[in-house]
Write a structure and sequence with these properties.
The chain is an alpha/beta fold and 351 residues long. It has helices spanning 25-31, 46-55, 62-73, 89-92, 102-108, 139-148, 170-189, 208-228, 255-269, 286-303, 315-325, 332-349; strands at 5-11, 14-20, 38-42, 82-87, 112-116, 121-124, 127-133, 153-160, 193-200, 237-240, 276-279, 309-313. The chain has twelve helices and twelve strands.
């Protein structure tokens, strides 16, 4: 990242740093859509990271979580495919195996550090099957700290569950949209880029058409509320699910079907002046996530979509690498090779 200065030192295994970043929000947002590059989502919470590691038989601890991050961040060549990485808050203050702070190391390679700023979800009192995202109470203070640690963009995730024609409810969509808008306004005021992630979950037996309709309702509500809050659209990024049949529906969507419905609904509901759109993998297999991304990118070009598109995957990039790594140092080269191979496939899929 140009116009950035990073300083760090390590004493007794503890990292200290001060990072100053450029403040042109539109320029920063657009830089995350450099040709052939995307964003790695590495923002799993302590709980989620622990579960992820345990599922591969890897011992869990704070040190193992740090090594988990270093497995991916320390891979040589990632700057060819990644414009940014979303970190969990604890990772901002950690060093890689080379003793360099993760944010400083990323900045030095032209990769923007971001951070997840929501604090997870809780059931809605009058609709307990739906979830609302927490984290607004002390957000301004936390943003000041994250920026000092080197973060230049942020992410807030909301969860949208489909259950027939019953869920989502309009009330849940509106409250999550209100919190996303409040978050976005605070982040822009702090001089950082907000990524807004209203994830329409894959879990369920719904049809692809139903998923498309819910995505439309979600973004229709969101952008109405964003306008009410006077959020600057030109420096915000949307992170979205693809329009997919539910994982319990028994339907296998073709990439062409996914692309037709996904690009169609996004062009119907998302304004042309946002900085760009990134896709989450959301429980798809690595092969599915990359095949669908390729079809979506091609369809977007055919229709003249007004905003840039790229990926922001987590598990789709990590699964094979974690299975190979198993928490063992001798397996790091093979695991990193698998990770880089998936990054390259996703880069090529963008066209």
């Amino acid at each position: 990242m140009k116009n950035s200065v990073a300083h760090a030192s390590t004493t007794a295994g503890v990292c200290y740093h001060e990072v100053t970043m450029m403040t042109d929000l539109v320029t920063i947002a657009r830089s995350l859509f450099a040709p052939g590059k995307g964003i790695l989502a590495a923002d799993e919470s302590v709980h989620t990271a622990t579960e992820r590691l345990a599922s591969y038989g890897i011992p869990t601890s704070a040190e193992m979580r740090r090594q988990y991050r270093d497995l991916f961040f320390g891979a040589e060549g990632i700057a060819q495919y990644l414009s940014g990485i979303i970190l969990f808050s604890e990772t901002l203050g950690e060093c890689g195996n080379d003793g360099t702070l993760f944010p400083e190391s990323l900045i030095a390679r032209g990769i923007a550090p971001g951070v997840k700023v929501d604090l997870g979800t809780e059931p809605i009192s009058d609709s307990p099957q739906e979830l609302i995202t927490q984290g607004l109470l002390d957000l301004p203070e936390r943003l000041v700290g994250y920026k000092k640690q080197g973060a230049v963009f942020t992410k807030w995730r909301a969860v949208v569950r489909i259950d027939g024609d019953t869920l989502p409810t309009a009330g849940a969509l509106h409250e999550n949209a209100r919190r996303l808008a409040t978050y976005a306004k605070e982040v822009q005021s702090a001089g950082m880029i907000p990524i807004l992630e209203p994830e329409v979950l894959l879990s369920g037996n719904h049809s692809r058409a139903r998923a498309r309709a819910v995505i439309a309702e979600t973004f229709g509500t969101l952008f109405s509320v964003l306008d009410e809050h006077a959020v600057d659209r030109t420096s915000l990024i949307v992170k979205t699910s693809m329009a997919l049949s539910g994982d319990a529906s028994g339907k296998k969507d073709t990439p062409e079907e996914v692309a037709e419905d996904t690009v169609g609904v996004l062009m119907e509901t998302i304004p042309a002046d946002i900085a760009g759109i990134v896709f989450l993998s959301g429980g798809q297999t690595p092969d599915q996530a990359i095949a669908n991304l390729k079809a979506i990118s091609q369809r977007a070009r055919e229709l003249g979509a007004p905003w840039p598109l790229t990926f922001s995957y987590a598990r789709a990039f990590q699964e094979e690498a974690l299975a190979l790594w198993q928490g063992k140092e001798e397996n790091v080269p093979a695991a990193r090779a698998a990770f880089l191979a998936r990054l390259k496939e996703a880069s090529v899929a963008l066209g």
